[in-house]
């Protein structure tokens, strides 16, 4: 887990513990078919400016976002672990969203980590059927952590 050198102390303050972050990722990854290999995920925390630049470069959206995920190239990886990809999180955006949505910050992090990990595993939400499948899985995994259904919460807003 890395922190961007440009990330301010105020933005770092709300980042949950490594244990909480790892638990959310591990839960999402246990559902995968990794053929017994350990899956490796790079987790980085970026400033609003850093994630906005990447969001513009890769998604043509020139504003900060809560998270981005980038799958590793698909290939056979000899050895004990397989790189799955990168997850980039923006604490400033995540904190603001949690406050605006009235969600506990740690639960919002858990949701975004599970959501991002599922993207690395090949899930998507571009089509309605895919979105329903991905959201159902996210909701089931979050319930195992005692986190309320984030999609139900959004529908009630």
Description:
The protein is of the alpha/beta class and 157 residues long. It has one domain (2-155): Collagenase (Catalytic Domain). It is 50% helix and 15% strand. It has helices at residues 9-12, 18-30, 48-59, 91-101, 105-120, 128-144, 150-155, and strands at residues 2-3, 38-45, 67-71, 81-89. It has a 4-stranded mixed sheet with strand order 1-2-4-3, with helices on both faces. α2 runs parallel beside α5 and α5 (105-120) packs across α6 (128-144). It is globular, with a radius of gyration of 15 Å. The model has no long low-confidence stretch (mean pLDDT 84).
SSE layout:
Elements: E1 2-3, H1 9-12, H2 18-30, E2 38-45, H3 48-59, E3 67-71, E4 81-89, H4 91-101, H5 105-120, H6 128-144, H7 150-155
Parallel strand pairs: 1-2, 2-4
Antiparallel strand pairs: 3-4
Function: Single strand-specific metallo-endoribonuclease involved in late-stage 70S ribosome quality control and in maturation of the 3' terminus of the 16S rRNA.
Cofactor: Zn(2+)
Subcellular location: Cytoplasm
